[in-house]
Amino acid sequence: MKIAILAGGFGSRLGIETESKPKPLVEIGGRPILWHIMHGFQRWGLDDFVIALGYKGDMIKKYMADYARLHGNLRIELGNNEIHHHDAQPLDWNVELIETGQRTQTGGRILRLKPFVGNQTFILAWGDGLSTVDVDALLQFHQQHGKLATVTAVRPPARFGHLEFEGDRVAEFSEKPQTAEGWINGGIFVLEPGVFEYIEGDDTHWEREPMENLARDGQLMAYRHEGFWQCLDTPRDLALLNRLWNSGSPPWQAAKPL
């Protein structure tokens, strides 16, 4: 099964972090968030990726092309200009890197991936979020309902500390990982090829007409994920994800150990 990842946005809300690199290469624990996302799918036995590039896509190409050199030891024979890799960390991934335009919107990027995902069910993921979504359960849910699209619904992370009162006294203060109510688009979908008919072109926002019309036609179902989910939109999000990594037990790695 193909995993399509949207990795072409500008990531402007991250400020200085994305002035020199695309958002998918912003690092958590010394590794790009794109690496964490792809490793997450690998844990479920999925390793065939199609990545939609846009802003500074050449840097993502270079990262993938140079992966072995960046993460293994090298012996360089300058006399004959040969480079030998050893003690590397091989990744058995198939990765297609597809230019989808600098200004193309999310729907347009998805449409441009049509020739590369084939006439089959595929997973679509945003290139800026980490979670503990049970991918096997998500796929099973999608197969059982038989509709064109499944969106993973998540509870948005709490932005402020949660207060419990006894009268005017604060009985409990906690940084709760999720709010108690409300569901949002978690940026992980399972899609059938028929969804391409809902996308007009490069200027189409996936989250607008395509999703709205799929819902209108009864073709959009929601898989509710109650566990950890965190997007990378702001410097605050980046600091949180790095704190979780530095804790030694990042939750997104606990979803399914390798």
TrEMBL record:
Broad enzyme group = transferase
Q: What is one Gene Ontology biological process annotated in the Swiss-Prot or TrEMBL record?
A: O antigen biosynthetic process
Top-level lineage group = Bacteria
Q: Name one Pfam family in it.
A: NTP_transferase
Per UniProt, the keywords (alphabetical) are: Nucleotidyltransferase, Transferase
What SUPFAM superfamilies does this protein's entry cite?
Nucleotide-diphospho-sugar transferases
The EC number on file is 2.7.7.33
Instruction: Output the Gene Ontology terms for molecular function.
Output: glucose-1-phosphate cytidylyltransferase activity
UniProt KW DNA damage keyword: no
Per UniProt, residues of the Nucleotidyl transferase domain are 5-207
InterPro entries linked:
G1P_cyt_trans, G1P_cyt_trans-like, NTP_transferase_dom, Nucleotide-diphossugar_trans
The answer on whether this UniProt entry bears the keyword Nucleotidyltransferase reads: yes
Q: Where are the transmembrane segments?
A: none
Q: In its UniProt entry, what is this protein called?
A: Glucose-1-phosphate cytidylyltransferase
